[in-house]
Amino acid sequence: MVSKTEETQLNRLENQVDNGGGGAWEYLCLVRKLKVRRSEKVLKYGLSILNDSRKRSALGPEEWTLYEQVAIAAMDCQCLDVAKDCIKVLQKKFPESKRVGRLNGMLLEAKGSWAEAEKAYSSLLEDNPLDQVIHKRRVAMAKAQGNISGAIELLNKYLEIFMADHEAWRELAEIYISLQMYKQAAFCYEELILSQPTVPMHHLAYADVLYTLSGLENLQTAKKYYASTIDLTGGKNTRALFGICLCTSAIAQVSKGRNKEDKESPELHSLAATALEKDYKQRASDKLGLLTSALRSLKT
Amino acid sequence: MAAELKYEISQHAYIKLVLHALKHNTTAVNGILLGRVNPQNENVVEIIDSVPLFHSNIALLPPLEIALIMVEEHYGSQGLGIVGYFHANERFDDAELGIVAKNIGDHIFRYFPQAALLLLDNKKLEAVPKGKGQSPLMQLYIRDTSKNWKLAGPDGGSRLVIKEPAANVVLSDYISSEKWQGIVDFDDHLDDIKKDWLNPELFK
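Structure tokens for the assembled complex are given below, as produced in the milestone run.
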């Protein structure tokens, strides 16, 4: 998961390389560090370095990391021959390597040879039962074959052992959301907020799920988490600002006719609405009219 | 709905939806169809425009609710309403109309009983650069009397056609020139409000 600043930096670098301004190696390192999926670019720029013997030897021992990175990108782009070549080079250099064994497993996956890939992974796991990457490959394979319940089972088992893997929790949450299993998704986000309380994305996702679940209590809690998102992002998160307005409107709907003692204070809603209007006026003025009508329809 | 309806989608709306799916080829995507019943022929539903919505966490309500309010507001002033929903599944092999699509479809149906659900046909999309077909790369689903979404078959009944016959050729061109890079959806807008989900510059 990448922060906004990191993403901007990456995109700037990507533009630079795209426009011939150099920095390909820097870009590839940043992609690796941030663990983002930009396979077409990685393939293009990675190959341009690998195919140039001078650039390649200038990398020193990082050359092999690049071969691995390009192999994976190639598989993602279905350029299996390129992947095979890269893996061959790595195999020659590191003949007994488990890491190369993993790449071979991934190649089988990319070809759709699920049973063989499963066999390869199982045997690698025998020698190394705590290899996180292989466990996650099996989740990915289940997902790729449409076996979503299998993926969920595997992912849950994985998280029992590796409970600090935040990306895995997020993946699980997203799978649950896609199946409309919102309570289970909420649980995942609760785990994430507990372990990373200052990451605003978790608060926002949790709020979104609670709002979707609906019910007065969930809506009130959602509002709190939209508020904490706004807090953690210095008021700059458009989704959270909208979230506040949606919550206020929904809460009013749900508690209509109930004599609620704790009347919702309208201040938070007006603050959020004002912040949105100010932002749209500055940066998206052609949509300001739409925003105003939308907010008006949400004001109860 | 016993009537046989013809759903006529404009090239503009059609291409936008496919390009959106191509841009986010690792996730499910969805979009909204805007249009109206043909004022001269009530058996024809014109799908005049489309708005690409999301490419992440499609089953969450808050972004969807905001998008629907804004989209309806914008097109309402042009006399157009929401007439349907488009969905593209995450996996190539998945040709099923999923529950999220059906739920959103049900919601739209309440306001527009001739609502259309369009599901991207991945196998047809794969064949686009080679073939010269004129048929749309989407399957049409309509709600039948038993409240289920039924696939509109080739054996009569309602059908989906593209208004401009050369649409797939234009689409092929755009695919080769990677035009999908420029497409903006509502997700992008919520992340950066400077990005315009109306995509005014896309086909210039």
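Chain B is about 30% helix and 25% strand. Chain B touches chain A through 28 residues (CB under 8 Å). Further analysis is deferred to the final report.
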